[in-house]
Specification:
20% strand, alpha/beta, 9-stranded mixed β-sheet, 508 residues, disordered N terminus, 7-stranded parallel β-sheet, Urease, subunit C, domain 1, 31% helix, globular
Length: 508
């Protein structure tokens, strides 16, 4: 499949499919991580000092969150989860130089530069920066409205360890493009961004910021226009027709970009045969199993849910669809946090996420969560479990499973915090911690075509890393205890980033 960078999104229509909320534990970062926790011990010099590093110029608004900015950094006595799915390795040394990973391995074999900044980290784990591919810069504001989070979300994503994100559909494409430019220039703290254009959707959605396509030519025109403006991914949405989707895919192929889809009117099989690159929301959006579905016609969430509930995960229908997706090289994005919020019996958002919300946003979220928690209806829990099982079956069949959080629904899916929850939920779905981390790191990089430079801890790759207090390989909830996030070799203070946006999610 020709590389084209994808897009994703999920708006109020997702609420019908949603599940309950991100993790029940407290904030993923203890307040005020400091140098007594991260022991900046004396260097153990064994090599000549390197040449002075050329660090990017960071504005004061970014520098205030920087904790480590040195040409050479040595992370001593860490456990490494390298992002490839391999088992965690204890007592490792990771050496960073000039923004790249210079060496990783047993500490005994390393030559540490004399001027390296040393972090002596027994009891800590280092893993790759997350590469998350269904993210947004907006958040539900009630009554079907969404507000841009261009202040809070970039900081939250970076604080949680997401060093690269793909937006999954945009309500403000110019805002997202300008935000990306500001982050790249060092003026704003945040992750590297792959920007998806506006939603490609036909008539019938009723969301004000989504344009209704007027046929295949309009779909191709919209693709070419936004590619010219700088977006690098596209996303097809629920009411798109096969002809419109085919025209969009053809135009995107010509541009060497990618397209994803949160579909309904077009089935997964039809989209795969048309050449789509990626499908969103696991199998919760699949209409392939709905009896009597008409071509180019969306179905109700109830009909889709009934069909999935009746589906045998190990049966011939499910196996045939999974085989089709694998054969066509279609990636599938797991977005479990946004479905968890609609599932009775699931935990509330963690305390840190609640703290990050503006008072009105928190009240709306808690009221909705309480209503869902009081339902005596096992249906959503069964759908949630069924989708998990289908995602696992797809990955086991050789499919490329990638991940994102989709911070939409009725709220509670908060950037940074929900990225940790996505990893926890993948483990709940049956993946090992190392496999879940691979899905959220190297698999995302593979899809975006950047796996030669990011996504795993390997010599020569960019130093995008997360330093976590604890042992996620044996206790996945430790994934929440992020203390330092390295992006391009610069170490950011996670606690400061989280603290800087308290009370703002839902407003800005």
């Amino acid at each position: 499949m020709r590389p084209r960078i994808l897009a994703l999104a999920m708006l109020c229509a997702l609420a019908a499919l949603a599940g309950a909320v991100p993790g029940a534990a407290s904030s993923p970062l203890p307040a005020g991580a400091n140098d007594t926790q991260l022991n900046l011990g004396a260097a153990r010099p064994t090599g000549a000092p390197p040449e002075a590093a050329q660090q990017p110029a960071l504005a004061p608004a970014v520098q205030e969150f920087v904790r480590i900015d040195a040409a050479a950094v040595a992370l001593l006595d860490v456990t490494v989860i390298d992002g490839t799915g391999a088992a965690a390795r204890d007592h490792q040394l990771v050496l960073l130089r000039d923004g790249k990973i210079e060496w990783v391995g047993d500490e005994a074999g390393a030559a540490i530069p004399a001027d390296a900044e040393i972090l002596d980290l027994p009891g800590y784990t280092v893993l790759p920066g997350l590469v998350m591919v269904h993210e947004h810069m907006f958040y539900p504001a009630g009554d079907g409205a969404y507000n841009q989070m261009q202040h809070s979300f970039p900081r939250l994503y970076l604080a949680g360890g997401a060093t690269t994100i793909r937006t999954g559909g945009s309500r403000d494409p110019y805002g997202d493009l300008n935000l990306k430019a500001a982050i790249d220039a060092g003026r704003v703290p945040g992750p590297k961004m792959d920007v998806t254009g506006p939603y490609l959707n036909g008539p019938g959605l009723g969301i004000m910021f989504v344009n209704a396509l007027d046929g295949p030519d309009d779909a191709a025109r919209m693709v070419r226009y936004w590619a010219g403006e700088g977006v690098t991914s596209f996303k097809a949405y629920m009411q798109i027709s096969r002809a419109e989707l085919g025209a969009a895919i053809e135009a995107i192929d010509e541009l060497g970009l990618k397209i994803t889809g949160h579909l309904c009117s077009v089935t997964y099989r039809e989209a795969a045969e048309l050449g789509i690159d990626n499908l969103e929301h696991g199998f919760m959006a699949a209409t392939d199993f709905v009896a009597g579905k008409q071509p180019d016609a969306c179905v109700s969430g109830r009909e889709r849910g009934d069909a999935l509930l009746a589906l045998d995960v190990d049966g011939p229908e499910a196996r045939a669809l999974i085989q089709t997706l694998v054969q066509h090289g279609v990636a599938v994005t797991s977005t479990l946090p946004v479905f968890e919020i609609g599932t009775p019996g699931r935990p509330q958002a963690p305390l840190g996420a609640l703290d990050a919300m503006a008072p009105d946003a928190r009240e709306r979220y808690l009221a909705s969560w309480t209503r869902i928690a009081e339902r005596d209806d096992p249906r959503q829990a069964e759908l949630f479990a069924k989708n998990m099982a289908l995602e696992k079956a797809f990955a086991d069949a050789g499919g490329l499973l990638i991940a994102g959080i989709d911070p939409t629904g009725y709220g509670g899916v908060v950037a940074g915090y929900a990225n940790h929850r996505q990893i926890e939920l993948l483990v709940e779905a049956g993946f090992t911690p190392e496999e879940a981390i691979e899905i959220c790191t190297l698999n995302g990089a593979r899809y975006l075509g950047i796996d030669e430079t990011v996504g795993s801890i390997e010599e020569g790759k960019v130093a995008d890393l997360i330093v976590v207090r604890g042992a996620p390989a044996s206790r996945i909830s430790d994934i929440r205890q992020v203390e330092i996030v390295f992006k391009d070799g610069v170490g950011y203070d996670s606690a400061k980033l989280f603290a800087s946006v308290r009370g703002t999610v839902g407003i800005r």
